[in-house]
Amino acid sequence: MTRTYLLFSVLFAVSGQLLLKWRSGKFASLPDPLLRKILFFFRNLLDPFVLLALTLGLISLFCWIMAISRADLSYAYPFMGAVFVLIFVFSVLLFGEPVTISKVIGQVLIVLGIVVSGFSR
User: Fold this and answer.
1) Mean per-residue pLDDT, 51-62
2) What is the DSSP string of 7-22?
3) Which of 50, 110, 115, 117 has a CA positioned 20 to 30 A from the CA of residue 81?
4) 110 CB contacts (<8 Å, ≥6 apart)?
């Protein structure tokens, strides 16, 4: 059951971050005057997709709390590294972000860390 909570925590966190990235591209750059920045913030905070992203983040947090209540933190925490890997993959696929050799090496090291940690139980 712990791994299920970890999986859902990761998936909801990734989904929320991808939604925020997608919507932030729709908002363009911040306007200059302070009042317009404040209005800009609240207008975007009330965007349905931003609210959905925040909700996904809260669900992820709930799943995370359930996972660490059942497992050692030192066991569970490395699985959060999967968030970095999935964000990298989906950022490339959905947003056309660049792939570099250093990013790929970093992702491989993260996956190796998750595998080693996952078998250390």
Assistant:
1) 96
2) HHHHHHHHHHHHHHHH
3) 50
4) 81, 82, 84, 85
